[in-house]
Each structure stands twice: as C-alpha cells, then as structure tokens.
UniProtKB/TrEMBL annotation:
Record EC number: 4.1.1.31
HAMAP family in alphabetical order: PEPcase_type1
Family indicated by similarity: Belongs to the PEPCase type 1 family.
An example Gene Ontology molecular-function term: phosphoenolpyruvate carboxylase activity
Gene that produces this protein: ppc
Species in which this protein is naturally found: Corticibacter populi
Cofactor(s) for this UniProt protein: Mg(2+)
Lineage: Bacteria, Pseudomonadati, Pseudomonadota, Betaproteobacteria, Burkholderiales
Designated name of the protein: Phosphoenolpyruvate carboxylase
Keyword match Magnesium: yes
Length: 939
C-alpha cells in the first residue's frame, strides 16, 4: 500500500494515467493510515506479503513456499490486520475504477460520441434505423420498465462503510475535475496545490474512518435493517436521478412530457419466501418508511421552491387558479401578502406535513409547520397543486423558473407518489397450500385439500372463487402459520387503501408448478378482499398474480401452465377487466443450479418465446390483448443471470420485450450500481436504452432455425455434463461444502434470510445464492461456465465429416445472434475472473483428498475445454479481448486479492481444525468481504 503500489505496470496507456494516479494516491494514503494506526512492523509485513503476491502472480510460479510460509506464521492479530488491509485496498480500487469509468464516458460525450447503453446512443441508433420520435413516444406511452431491489444474503457491505466510500468517491471526482481543468487552462491555477492538499487531507480522514470502522456486523441484519439500507439509495440516487433521466428523454425527443413509464420496485419487506422474519408488521413498516422517505423529500423540495419562487404579484401576474390556491393556503402572514407563490407553497408544505403524520405516524417534517393543513387524500391532489404553480409560471413569463426544482418535483410525484416504490409480495406455493388446507378443513368444505389431485383442486378452487361467502370462521383459533399468512394479505388490502394502487401490484408465487398454485393465491387474495366480485360474474383483481418458474422443469412447463390457467372459466375475463396485464417471473438461479449456465439460459430463452406465442394466441381468442411482461430474476453473478444489463436485455428473444420489463437488482450489486449517484444514473439509463432498442430496432429479426437447433443440441450436451458432475458424482456435495467457505458464509450476519431452506448439507436444499457465492469465493466460478466446453466438443464431434461446417455455424451464431453472443461474453468474463491455481488450493481443504483430486481434475479438464471452445468460436485466445476495461481491472486488481485467498484457505484450515479463536473467525469473514468486493459479483 505504498507509493510503489501500482508501479508494477509501467506501460499503461495515457488514458489510464488518471486511474493509476487515483489508485496510487489511495494506496499511499491507506499505507500511511496503517503505519500510523498499527505501526511500522505491521506496515512492513503487509508490504512484504504484497510483494510476494505480486511476484507470484507475475511469474505464476508453482513455488508458493515463501508466501505460504509467511502466512502460516502470522499471529491472530496480524492476520486480522493483513486481511483488513487488502480488503480495504479492494474497496478503494473499486472507487477509483468507478470514477475512471465516469471520466472516460465524459470524454467520449464531449467528443459527441454516444456510448453503448446510453439514451443518446439508443436514440441515435433508432433514428439511423428510420424510427421517428413519434414512434418512440408512442412506445413509451405504454411502456413499463422497473428495476426491483431485493435483499439476499450476499450484501456484504455495511451502510457505514458505504457512506464513507460515497464521500471518498465525491472527493476523487472533485480532485479529478480540478486536475482536468488545470490541464485545459492556459495559465496554471495558483490555488490548485492548496486545493489538492486539502482534498488529500479529506481523503485521509475518510480512509482513517474506514480503518477505524468495524467491517462486520455483530448481529444479523433484521428485515427492518434491510429496508433502511435499501431506502438510502432512494435518498441518494433514485429520487434525484430518475427525474433527470426523464428530462433528458424529453429534451432529446423534443417532447414537453413523456409518460412515466420508468418506476422502481422492491421486495424488501414483502418477500417472505423462505424468510420467516417477514410478517404483516414488516410489510406495514416497509410501506410506512417508504412513504416517509418520499414525503420528507417532497417537503425539502417544496421548501427549496419557496425560497426560489419569491415573485411579487406587483412585479409579475399570476393565474386566477394560483390566486385562489393562495387564498386557501391558510398563510395570512403580512410579509407574504404580495407573494402568492410562497403562500401556495406554505399551504402545500402544511398539507404534506399532515400527510406525513397520517401515512407514517411518528415521522417528523424537516421543519416546523406554523399552521397545520388538511392531509392530501392521494398524490394526485399534490400533483394538481404543483401543476397550478407550473401553469401560472408558464403563462406569466416564468418558464425559466420551472427546470431547477418544480419540473423535477412534478416528475417525482408522478413516479414515486406517496408510496415511493411498488412493493412486491412473494411466498412459496407450498405455504399457500398449507394455509388453504387448514381453512377448508375448519370451514367443513374439504377435509384434506392437500390430498386432492390437480383436477380436483382446480374444480374446488374455481367453485370457491365463484362463491360470495368467506372461508374464515370467526373466532376460530387458527394455527400461527395460517394467522400469519392471512394477516399479510389483510395488510396488503390496507396498504392499497392507504397508499394507493401502485403501493402493491404484484403477488409472486415461488415454485409455481401447476394451475392450482395460481388459483390458490387468487383465492387467498379474494379472502382478503383483493379480488372483488365473483369469478364468473366480472371479478376484478387489485393485484397481479405472478407465477415464478425457476427450475428447468418449471420453465419447460410454463407455457402449458399459463395456457391451462387462462382456459379456466372466468380467468381471462378477470385479467382483462383488471388492466389486461400479466407478469411472469423467470428464475435464473435455480435453473442454473439445476442444469448449468448454458441450459439455464437456453431454457429461459425457449420459455420466453413460447410464452409470447401463448399470449399472442390468447389475444386472438379473446379479441383483446393481454400484456405480457417478463420479470427477470437476475442475480449478481453470471451464474445467476448477472452480467451487463444492456446486453442481457438485447439478448432477449425477438418480440418478448415490447417495452415491458422488470428485473431484480440483488445483494451487493445494488451498492455497486447505485451507491454513487452518477454511476446509478448511467445504470438506469442502460435499462431504458436497451428497452428502446430491443423493442423498436427493426433488425431484430427471427432467429434462423439452424441456430435454434444447434442451441438445443448444445444445451442437451451441456446439461448432461453438468448433471454428471454435480448430481451424479458421489459425494460431490461434500467437496463443495469443504472446498468453499459456504459454511462460514452462512455464519455471516449479511442478511435476514437463512442460507438454506432446510438444515443439512444437501445441494437440493441449498439456496442458489450461496451456491454461486461459494464458487466465486474459491475462484472456480463454476456456475458461470461449467458444461459449455463439453457441449461444444460433443457438437463438433457428432458429425466428424461436418466439423468445419458446424464450427462455422457456431462462429456465425456468435456474430449474428445477440443471445449467443451475450452468453459467450458472460462466460468469457467469468473465466477471466476464475483462477485454477487458487481454486486448487481450496481443494486441499477437502478431508477426502482422493475425492478432491477426482473432482478437481474433472473441473479443471472442463475449464480447459471451455477455454478452447471460446477460442475456437470467437477467435480470441486471450480472455476479455473485447472488453479491455475489465481486462485492465483484473490486471491491476487481482495480484492484491491473492493474499486474501491464501489467507482464507489457511484460516479455514485452522477454524475447521478446532482453532476457535474469535480472531480466526473474524479474519475469515473479513476475507469473504474483501474477495466479494474485489470480484464485484459475489452471488
């Protein structure tokens, strides 16, 4: 962490010089802080480990004895210090890279170059394709784009750490702007040295804060903690950046107002699948806190408007509507007698404060209210008041005053309302079955619902959906499970009444495997008054029932299940009467864990295509379209659907986006994408740009039949290879649980949800999230590539005489088919982040070394086959040849995570051997944090 930290790479291009300067600066400051806080001996020890790791990485020598011997000799305190040092270096390197990304993008924009994934780039591509602004606006009128924040046990950062790092990022940005300006100025700025010195001192203070702040949580996160963490991103990024996104679209399309098609979604507080800590109380808490964040933000903005709109009626006229609103404001201060805008805003502020007190009891407005006003009944009333101000300004030479605060505030109220974000509810289908079994038994309707076959279940459920009577028996002592489930449905009904129809729109059914799974959820919604009317007599549903298809088998059955669901009497009529929207969620995690990356991606592609065909047919049958919206359950790692969102959306099957898409943002990815507001804005732009292009670009033609046939053959062979290793190799689960830190990950206080659905060490019970997390920590990243090499080899060797023709077909698929190209790109990235030498060290932790050698040899052979297959298809022998930015990141960063891996293996060995010193456990958990931060996609 000295000034020599990055001198290992002297041949970097000039454009990378600012990045290297930032990393050197942060590394030097970190080194100084360690020397000051821990002493010269510990600093020298860290430097020695760094040098040995860099040398080992550069030479890739098999002789790791000096480094290994040194690490084995570390005391408990030394180990914790070393792990913390390299972990914080990874965090600081991330901040420097983020700033460099923004810096390079600004350079390109100043040159008039439009980046891939930007709104400007998407609109330019559409114009070149002959798509006019009118077509774009019409598409956006009916579009729905929504990133959905979820809480999963991979978010390894504490909010305290994120807040300090946010300040460091801002200081780096400030420093970069000064240096860039000094390069452009003809005359040197005499103030620059002093400014830079002050900036460095501010950075030093924040790095000191980081070093003295606890990296780990002593207690497990509660659901309330997760809610608060998520809400911090709204205050920092979404509330401020989303209105700017709309403003850019309007400016570039020359439109005064674009429909509010882009909205945020959230699971935290409503997702109870496998999480017993989510209850009706947490749902109410989430909604109450969301309202508080939105309303307090509006109160601040209204206060700022009051300072800004100081116009006297003696100097500028106002509309009759505004004057009337001022008279009703309750503000009779003589100091504002001639300032109608301020009087109106005083009244709005009072009404917002009353609304805050009503929707979020206990929350206080930022400033005192002199005279209380009546609460707003809904956000539309606030919007109407603000529009009166806007129209008065426009009609009285005040248009220039709209852009700073009023126009963004109008957009915020449209998008965020009083609910802030749409909160999804989710539960597993087996829980619905258990509750209904109890309800039906107590009501003397069916003694054992769970024992019925599928046909009998559907008949009974449809009959009950057509009856007016409730199932609940008053005063009966239902089980705690049934009471808890019914309470959350009741809380949802209250929420829609209190916060408006956008507060909760989706009810997601995990493990949807049959039509009855959908009907069960619908019946429970009816029991809470969320389905009004009878199914056969024009019922309307206040919430969309959303099936989640997760495993390979579920994905294959999805089109048939949906076709049969809509064939039930009354279902299509109900959906059409309720808004004609149908969301279907597709799970990337379990499908990958079930069949490997290639088969998972292919089965998702096929399912989407067939679902789109199914709903097109439904539209023809009923003479009215039912809008199909895919909801992609993407995780952080490629093995769970991760990777660049822009490419992922463009890789969707033709005709399946149509301006409609939801996708999850999970775990540590939320911090990586949205902690920095400018980075957050760019990531939000990417979703819009990709949706525009995927929907409107005409070159998205039908995929050739031979491409589809080849993909199916590859998928079959890939799944066979994957299943042979993971599910057919005896004791493979033992290898995984011992050769990765997955057991220790479960002990980390990094989420409210248990890591496994059931206790024990069965892969079937392990959640897909720690499955991917564990492989990432051990640097094998197996879920992101395994099976592809065998699949390609099998495909090419199936017809030896036609091998060249088949290889040419795969190369053509990579050039012309976005789905295949994106799949290869993601595997390329994962392979670049993998490291067989480090992964082999983790295999030494497996007690049965014969098993370890057998399994590792199989994985290493497949790794080689996959690398060869990528080289054959893409023509690139080096990984990330098409992504120099990421290649640079890996080149700079990975020598400094190697010590964390070496230490983690040693620490795991000690811990599992019974060395239960708390410092050993602490160091393991910090190493998990550091590796996760450095890889930037842990699970």
């Amino acid at each position: 962490m000295s000034a020599r930290t990055m001198n290992t790479y002297p041949n970097e291009s000039e454009k990378e010089r600012p990045l290297l300067e930032d990393i050197r600066l942060l590394g030097r400051i970190l080194g100084d802080v360690i020397r000051e806080q821990e002493g010269e001996d510990d600093f020298a020890l860290i430097e020695r480990i760094r040098q040995l790791a860099v040398a080992d990485r550069r030479e890739r020598s098999s002789d790791e004895v000096p480094l290994q011997r040194l690490l084995e000799q570390l005391s408990g305190d030394q180990t914790v210090t070393v792990v913390r040092a390299f972990t914080y270096f990874s965090h600081l390197a991330n901040l420097a890279e983020d700033q460099h990304f923004l810096r390079r993008r600004e350079v390109h924009e100043r040159r008039g170059e439009h980046s891939r994934g930007s709104i400007a780039g998407a609109l330019e591509a559409l114009r070149q394709a002959g798509v006019d602004n009118g077509a774009i606006v019409r598409m956006l009128d009916n579009a729905y784009v929504s990133p959905v924040l979820t809480a999963h046990p991979t978010e390894v950062q504490r909010k305290s750490i994120l807040d300090a790092e946010k300040t460091i990022a801002a200081l780096l940005a400030q420093r970069g702007q000064w240096l860039e300006q000094s390069r452009l100025d003809a005359q040197p700025d005499a103030r620059l040295p002093g400014r830079l010195a002050d900036n460095e001192e501010a950075l030093r203070a924040r790095v000191t804060q980081l070093w003295q702040t606890r990296l780990l949580r002593y207690s497990r996160l509660s659901v309330q903690d997760e809610i608060e963490n998520a809400l911090s991103y709204y205050e920092a990024t979404f509330l401020r950046e989303i209105p700017q996104l709309y403003a850019e679209l309007e400016k570039r399309l020359h439109e005064p107002h674009i429909a509010s098609f882009f909205r945020m979604g959230q699971w935290i507080g409503g997702d109870r699948d496998g999480n017993p800590n989510v209850t009706a109380q947490t749902l109410r808490y989430a909604l109450r806190r969301q309202a508080a964040v939105a309303l307090r933000h509006y109160l601040d903005e209204v206060h700022a408007l009051g300072a800004e709109l100081s116009m006297s009626e003696r100097r500028a006229g106002v509309s009759a509507e505004l004057r009337a609103l001022a008279e009703r404001s309750g503000d009779d201060s003589p100091h504002r007698d001639d300032e109608p805008y301020r009087r109106v805003l005083t009244g709005i502020y009072a009404r917002l404060a009353a609304t805050l007190a009503q929707l979020s009891p206990g929350a206080q407005p930022p400033r005192l209210v002199q005279r209380p006003g009546p609460a707003y009944a809904h956000a539309g009333e606030l919007l109407a008041d603000l529009q009166v101000i806007a129209e008065s300004l426009r009609s009285h030479h005040g248009t220039a005053l709209l852009s700073a605060h009023l126009q963004p505030l109008l957009r915020k109220v449209e998008v965020f309302g009083f609910h802030l974000t749409t909160l999804d509810m989710r539960q597993s289908s087996d829980q619905h079955e258990a509750v209904l079994t109890e309800l039906l038994q107590v009501a003397r309707v069916e003694s054992d619902y769970a024992a019925l076959d599928e046909a009998a279940r559907c008949r009974l459920l449809l009959q009950l959906l057509g009856e007016a009577r409730p199932l609940r028996v008053l005063d009966h002592a239902y089980s705690d499970k049934a009471q808890g489930e019914l309470a959350i449905f009741d809380a949802a009904r209250e929420a829609l009444t209190t916060y408006g129809p956008q507060a909760i729109r989706h009810y997601i059914i995990s493990h949807t495997e049959s039509v009855s799974d959908l009907l069960e959820a619908l019946l429970l919604l009816k029991e809470a008054g969320l389905v009004q009317g009878l199914l056969a007599e024009g019922a309307r549903a206040a919430i969309i029932v959303v099936p989640l298809f997760e495993t390979i088998g579920d994905l294959r059955n999805a089109p048939g299940i949906m076709r049969d669901y809509y064939a039930q009497d009354g279902i299509a009529r109900m959906v059409l009467a309720s808004g004609a929207e149908q969301d279907i969620m597709l799970g990337y995690s379990d499908s990958n864990k079930d069949g490997g990356i290639l088969t998972s991606n292919w089965e998702l592609y096929v399912a989407e295509t067939r679902l789109a065909e199914c709903f097109a047919e439904l539209g023809r049958q009923h003479g009215s379209a039912i809008g199909l919206r895919m909801f992609h359950g993407r995780g952080g790692a490629v093995g769970r659907g991760g990777g660049p969102s822009y490419d992922a959306i463009l890789a969707q099957p033709p005709g399946t986006v149509c301006g409609q898409i939801r996708l999850t943002e999970q775990g540590e990815v939320i911090g990586s994408k949205y902690a920095n507001p400018e980075i957050g804005r760019r990531n939000l732009e990417t979703l819009v740009a990709a949706t525009l292009e995927a929907t409107l670009l005409p070159q998205r033609r039908e995929v050739p039949a031979d491409f589809l046939q080849a993909a199916q053959q590859l998928s079959d062979a890939s799944m066979a290879a994957y299943r042979q290793l993971v599910y057919e190799t005896p004791d493979f689960a033992s290898y995984f649980f011992n050769a990765t830190p997955v057991r220790e990950i479960a002990e980390l206080n990094i989420g409210s949800r248990p890591a496994s659905r059931k206790p024990g060490q069965r892969l079937e019970d392990l959640r897909a999230i720690p499955w991917g997390f564990g492989w990432g920590q051990s640097r094998l990243t197996l879920p992101g590539w395994y099976g592809f090499g065998s699949a390609v080899a099998h495909y090419l060797e199936a017809e030896p005489a036609g091998r060249d023709e088949r290889l040419a077909r795969l190369q053509q698929m990579a050039r012309e088919w976005p789905f295949f190209r994106t799949l290869l790109s993601n595997m390329d990235m994962v392979l670049a982040k993998s490291d067989l030498a480090l992964a082999e060290r983790y295999s030494t932790l497996v007690p049965d070394q014969a098993l370890a050698r057998q399994v590792f040899a199989a994985m290493a052979a497949e790794w080689q086959r996959t690398v060869l297959a990528l080289t054959q298809i893409t023509g690139h022998g080096e990984r990330l040849a098409a992504n120099p930015g990421l290649a640079r990141s890996i080149r700079h960063r990975f020598p400094y995570i190697d010590p964390l891996h070496h230490l983690q293996v040693e620490l795991l060995r000690r811990w599992r051997a019974g060395e239960t010193d708390e410092r050993v456990q602490t160091a393991i958990h910090i190493s998990i944090n550091g590796i996760a931060a450095a890889l930037r996609n842990t699970g």
